Amino acid sequence: MATLSEAIGGTLFNRIPGFSLDLYLFPGVEYRVPEMSKNESLTPETVKFYEATTDVIVPRRCIDGRADPDSKLGPQMPGGSILPALLVSIYTDTALDEGSLVRDFQKLTQNRYGLGIHTDTHKHGDASGCGFADNLIKIVKTAQGKEAEIKEIVLGLDSGIDSELLGTILATAFIKIGKFDVSKIKLSGDLLIGVAVDLGSNEEVLVGEHEEQAVFINFKEGVTFHTNMANEAGTPAFNLDYWAVSEDAGVLGVNDNNFKLGATLALAVATEMVLVEQKGKSRLPIYVNK
Ligand SMILES: [Zn+2]
User: Fold this and answer.
1) Is residue 217 a contact partner of residue 131, using CB atoms and an 8 Å limit?
2) DSSP bridge partners of 53
3) Ligand 1: centre distance to CA 43 (Å)
4) Which residue among 87, 137, 209, 266 has its CA within the 20 to 30 Å range from the CA of 169?
5) How many A from CA of 176 to the centre of ligand 1?
6) What is the pLDDT of residues 181-237, one digit of tens each?
7) What is d(CA 187, CA 176) in angstroms, rounded to the nearest whole number?
């Protein structure tokens, strides 16, 4: 099992004398979330990280907390295989269009990396049912417009990463995010999902409503969130498997570990802002699984 330092590019941490990430690894912890109960007193509720083993060959899933009863439980990232393609565009300052998707998805397929996206049972119009795919431009714009707030949120996570180092990681990512012209995003919504399906992506069809209670960021390699089990337990959550993002983006030539991690975290927080807070719901707690 890889440690967090390996997952995000070990050499980074070896340069810091006396700093060992392994000290921060507590597998199998349960995360306690304070919530107001019906009688208004503060009682802890448990949002558990239900682990499922997975692999890079299993089709990607979105971070969406809703279940697909037939899910193959592949690694999760915003929009499934859409996120690595977006990271390439931002990193190289080039268009996200049909041509770039053909190029990137072919590379992933050649590496036997599983492609995946999703819709849902009540999609309509130009919307695909995937909030990330439908709001791609809005999410990047939110990351650009809320840089300070996003940095504060990420620096406040129990990530086990030295805060000075994490500051550098975020700064590296925001240089490229800030410079990226969102008009380079040529595809979103139903069109984007359609192209992804044509290129061989597995399609999950998610059921039910958004009732996520937390956001997990998982660094534990070979592991993902058992979305169906969490739904059965009544504690659905968003989950992002960073180790798999790092793999996919690496295959696509995004090899700057600082950019990869910083941009993924920034876009994940921006996604929560757009899909949860901008829809009038309260900010969800973010927990790191490592
Ligand atoms: Zn989605």
Assistant:
1) no
2) 223
3) 31
4) 137
5) 24
6) 999 999 999 999 999 999 999 999 999 999 999 999 999 999 999 999 999 999 999
7) 20
Span 16-49, pLDDT tens digits:
333 333 333 334 444 444 343 333 333 335 789 9
Distance, CA 218 to ligand 1 centroid (Å)?
Answer: 17
Ligand 1 center to residue 238 CA distance, Å?
Answer: 10
- The enclosing H or E element of 225 equals strand 223-225
Q: pLDDT averaged over the chain?
A: 88
| Cα 15 to averaged position of ligand 1 atoms, centre (Å) | 37
What is the rounded distance in angstroms from the CA atom of residue 264 to the CA atom of residue 257?
11
DSSP H helices in 51-129: 82-92, 98-110
> Ligand 1 center to residue 245 CA distance, Å?
15
**Residue 115 CB partners (closer than 8 Å, separation 6+):** 59, 60, 80, 81, 105, 108, 109, 196, 199, 200, 201, 202
Q: How far apart are CA 138 and CA 144, in angstroms?
A: 10
Backbone φ and ψ for 163, nearest 5 degrees, come out as: -65, -35
CA of 78 from ligand 1 middle (Å) equals 6
Domain extent listing, the chain? 4-289
